[in-house]
Amino acid sequence: MRFDTLEAWLAWLEHLHPRSIDLGLERVRRVAEALGLGATLPCPVVTVAGTNGKGSSVALLESILSAAGHRVAAYTSPHLLRYNERVRVGAREASDAELCRAFDRVDRARGDVSLTYFEFGTLAAFDHFARARPDVAVLEVGMGGRLDAVNLLDCDVALVTSIGIDHVDWLGHDRETIGAEKAGIFRRDRPAVCSDPAPPLSLPSAAADRGAVLHLPGRDFGWAAGDSAAGAWTWWGGGARCDDLPAPALAGRFQYHNAAGVLMALRLLDGRLEVPARGTGGRPAAGFPARAVPAPGGGRRAVHPGRRPQHGRHGGAGAFAGGRARSGAHARRGGHSRRQGHRRHDIVARARRGRLVRGPPAGGAGGAGRTPQGQHRRPRAGGGPDRRRCAGRLSRRRLCGAPR
Question: Considering the entire predicted model, what is its pTM?
Answer without folding.
Answer: 0.72
